[in-house]
Amino acid sequence: MTPNKIKAAIVGASGFTGSEMARLLHQHPDVELIGITSESHTGKPFSTLHPQFLGSIDLPLISAEQVPDLGAEVLFLALPHRVSMDYVARWHELGVKIIDFSGDFRLSSPEVYAEWYGETHRYPAGFGQAVYGLPELYASEIQQADLVANPGCYPTASLLSLAPLVQKDLIEPDSIIIDAKSGLTGAGVKASAGTHFSEVNENFKAYGLGVHRHTIEIEEQLSRQRGKQPLQVQFTPHLLPLDRGILVTAYAKAKAGLDAARLQETVASFYADKPFVHVVPESPGIKTVRGSHFAAVHPFFDQRTGRVIMTCAIDNLLKGAASQALHSMNLMFGLPETRGLEQLPLKP
Amino acid sequence: MTPNKIKAAIVGASGFTGSEMARLLHQHPDVELIGITSESHTGKPFSTLHPQFLGSIDLPLISAEQVPDLGAEVLFLALPHRVSMDYVARWHELGVKIIDFSGDFRLSSPEVYAEWYGETHRYPAGFGQAVYGLPELYASEIQQADLVANPGCYPTASLLSLAPLVQKDLIEPDSIIIDAKSGLTGAGVKASAGTHFSEVNENFKAYGLGVHRHTIEIEEQLSRQRGKQPLQVQFTPHLLPLDRGILVTAYAKAKAGLDAARLQETVASFYADKPFVHVVPESPGIKTVRGSHFAAVHPFFDQRTGRVIMTCAIDNLLKGAASQALHSMNLMFGLPETRGLEQLPLKP
Amino acid sequence: MTPNKIKAAIVGASGFTGSEMARLLHQHPDVELIGITSESHTGKPFSTLHPQFLGSIDLPLISAEQVPDLGAEVLFLALPHRVSMDYVARWHELGVKIIDFSGDFRLSSPEVYAEWYGETHRYPAGFGQAVYGLPELYASEIQQADLVANPGCYPTASLLSLAPLVQKDLIEPDSIIIDAKSGLTGAGVKASAGTHFSEVNENFKAYGLGVHRHTIEIEEQLSRQRGKQPLQVQFTPHLLPLDRGILVTAYAKAKAGLDAARLQETVASFYADKPFVHVVPESPGIKTVRGSHFAAVHPFFDQRTGRVIMTCAIDNLLKGAASQALHSMNLMFGLPETRGLEQLPLKP
Amino acid sequence: MTPNKIKAAIVGASGFTGSEMARLLHQHPDVELIGITSESHTGKPFSTLHPQFLGSIDLPLISAEQVPDLGAEVLFLALPHRVSMDYVARWHELGVKIIDFSGDFRLSSPEVYAEWYGETHRYPAGFGQAVYGLPELYASEIQQADLVANPGCYPTASLLSLAPLVQKDLIEPDSIIIDAKSGLTGAGVKASAGTHFSEVNENFKAYGLGVHRHTIEIEEQLSRQRGKQPLQVQFTPHLLPLDRGILVTAYAKAKAGLDAARLQETVASFYADKPFVHVVPESPGIKTVRGSHFAAVHPFFDQRTGRVIMTCAIDNLLKGAASQALHSMNLMFGLPETRGLEQLPLKP
Prior knowledge:
Largest interface: A-B, 43 and 43 residues
Number of domains of chain A: 2
Largest sheet of chain A: 7 strands, mixed
CATH superfamily of the largest domain in chain A: Dihydrodipicolinate Reductase, domain 2
GO biological process, one term (chains A, B, C, D): L-arginine biosynthetic process
Pathway (chains A, B, C, D): Amino-acid biosynthesis; L-arginine biosynthesis; N(2)-acetyl-L-ornithine from L-glutamate: step 3/4
Main location (chains A, B, C, D): cytoplasm
CATH class of the largest domain in chain A: Alpha Beta
CATH architecture of the largest domain in chain A: 2-Layer Sandwich
GO molecular function (chains A, B, C, D): N-acetyl-gamma-glutamyl-phosphate reductase activity; NAD binding; NADP+ binding
Distance between the termini of chain A: 38 Å
Structural class of chain A: alpha/beta
Number of helices of chain A: 11
Oligomer: homotetramer
Strand content of chain A: 15-25%
Strand order of the largest sheet of chain A: 8-9-7-10-13-12-11
């Protein structure tokens, strides 16, 4: 091991998040990636699963059982929800910092979790300890945290769009409608009828109308931004025939007196010192942020209808997952926010 | 010429609508396609422009100047708006029936046209004569018409989603938000930075926030459905990285007392005798309607938020353009509504 | 049942070929589609599996066990190879005509089958009876056949490219290299790592180098065209990130004395009376034949190198599968070749 | 300016190569990117043209006329052929090192250039000075060069496939057939009928049969590998419906005595110390190298036919353009070959 480097490990190597996390950790100047787990491919090089890393990340895969002996200082858990909570329960006591990609610790309580995830939570103690890992809102809490719940991809784009407006009281809180569109990597690496090329290609549809779990995640966070007063949002996800990217188009009724200039100014000043949010002058395309660590946010005020439209584009695997987790890790270890997050986007 | 067949001609051969119109007219059992115009390719076979029709539609292209001498009984004008009005003005007096794909005669008055299209209309007399060609709403007017303004592609999907709800007074009229997504053929055949493959592929974005001309077209038609009381909608179009298809996701606040069963029943009964609208049990993908003449409409009531979500998928070049025009032609000539519109979709 | 219509059934409803076959049979003026089988969805409407046919092909799915009682005159077997042979063995004796999409009866003998398919054939008697269903080469045999082995998709495009050259002795037979590219529907409907959208999209690769089973199918048929003298071809398939279409680029050394004019003339005259082959003046794109029943063939002679390059584009699900089967059915029942095959391509 | 950093400038900012070159130079630890030219956007930030670089590469664009005053030590010319030669002529005398992306200095003489490019060369003196910038073959010449002709994208993949076989005399030189497939960025950024999304998407075709200019570039280089004995290749390019990547499938007749082991061994040992070529165990997909600086080469010997098949995948904008140029720059300035070329691929 290299002295003075942060020892990091990834639990769950086969999916898109695990793969992107490995890519970023491998290139981070202050990190040493010392372990990646996969129960089904133990012993094989990581690059067997992800051949784009042949010659660069050839670390042999280990079992999750070996994690406690690794000596890792930080673990990135890229596991399905319902699975993740058990590992957090076991490892959290060991004194290692954990950044969890699942939905298991994003909500406010075991009761809300049970309601939206349909399952009794097996580590309720975690709720008091987990910090919601959106650095634009909670940087100081994250700095102190040893368990971070990395936000969902849709909530990241939705909250970056709406949090300034809710916090600054510019919109009617119960008028919010979030029409969200995600590339197919958001659906995960598992082969199914729904991820078959011939089903996805040249297709587009809505899914999960009224019941998607990211709804409550967004609602709880926006509620927090207005002093814990509850609010409801309408959230509808759609599936795009492309690999990467989320675009959120969010609508809300403006409160009296808002105009385009004040909207622009509020959003721009909210993000003035946030290194990973760009407030952009035209409604962003998701291709512009592919491979980037940035959210591109565009505020628009429709004078005719009195509504605000926020559009926000992110790379769902980066700002919507791996980059955001690394941003949190930087905060947790006292590093500059942008360390290891300097790669430029790949376009086209 | 074949006796007893309707003589039809297409003005404007180079675009996607002209091409699809030719395909449908060629296969219609009661129609003879006797002329197609193109100023830039006069004399060449139509299949030179559209090689998929080699051996089937090889008609030599003519100039629009030759149209009056053709003996056509019906003209399909596949021309840009601002251009179309001048041809309508010249030919309308000749006694030929016209179905116009442009936006020039869809609105209620020259004044509204000037406001949204930024141009003084040069054939204001046409407004009194043109019928809005949405057969699900105006079949009897279309039967009597000799000038039909074929609806825009976005308005078709939007109105099929919302007209039943507005007409039956199920929703708050000023709460309507239409988040619409279209395949690239909606942007037209012209090569530009915005239609370059590398700009569109793997990309997705909103455009025309707050100012798209289809907004007023939707507003005027919905207003008509509630007894001419005005209303405003929020309409946002987006560009999908695929060839064909529109999906509209429309939101509105339900009036008190609505529930899922009544919503379903209202929509189903509204379309019970409409051959080209399917009320479907799951939110439709656009690939299911590609190459079809149908709109697939899905009503959803969110009990939690009290909102209605309507999703509607159409093939923008067919139900959103050429099929709908042919449907109107069938009505204008006293043919069964589905005549010549029996091709099945091509999937995948 | 409708009198005077040919009673047809499809065995195997879930795949792309079964779906396309149903679409074509449903629209054929002289056919009644009386049964479609699916063991896993028995009792459900066909449109449950393929929702694009909602309202048009809603026939309830039956078990293959019910096929003998159907009264069908012709069966289309859309089953995997190794499975198909057992059904052919059982039903062939019943006097029903069979068109088989699998590879089980395309080769010359059970021995060759065993060598390339790695399995002992369980109905060797079928080899003497099956006719290779490429109507451009074997129309008269097909007319007499009651068991037709529908050609593979790659062999169809390869043989339409090369058969005229081999038969007319224009090329060195052992110099043939076939570089073939297919859309993803060629890989079938089954979900797997290889058909996952994120694996296929933006990707392209060769597979099956030197061992693909279509190699022997092409070799045997070309050998037949030169009086049963054996020959070998190099055949390499590739996977394209799109739904439909095959392009074959075939290379061969010209025999002395060939020139561009004679090549063009030979190919054009070979296909002069073949309704489903277009000899085209430019190398064809597969999008031009999507949804069409045609092969587009382009001959090119490179004076500098002395080689012939043939390019051929087909829709793999139509001319490469369902259209070709229907063409054979027309021949078997004494119908005009093009009956029921008059739909025009859908582009873009 | 930063002392001790190499001062670099890019001439021609609007295309894909200019954009990728800027991305790489910006991240190179030993380079300072001091100028980028664009005649049509002079004065605007580079990120106006390429918004993915907003906040990172905001350098104001300058005119090419200002280049001599910049103080650059190396110029990257991302200009069309026929244009590039005039700038090389003017600047070459100034003592600045030039890496030229055009085809103007890749061939052996003005005569060959005139024959294949159809134009009299206006700087014939350049032919004696230019070095062909394929580091795997000509590293030592490149180290001494002050004018490097960066190879074409197709020739890069073709030569990496075939040079070892020709140099080691494993194949019949006149039997080479190169079937090449490129993503759409290879066609350039200019909007035209051929780059329109609806023409490219879901399409695939061959072009330039027998006449593509990369043919002679490949022939001259392979000839050089066999001691200047001439040879001819058959080269056919095809257009893929995706953004980035080239796959070359190259065929040749093996000389007597070759077998799979010797082929593998020859190729592996040829590239043993070449940092940017991976000899891979399965035929590579282009998605595995997207965003990477590597060529993935796979040798295959078909025992049955006696032919070698080489497949090679590269990112056409990187190993096929910008990475290769930077690799040459590293050699020219005495830097380690891999300096600034350590980014990992972005997949999916």
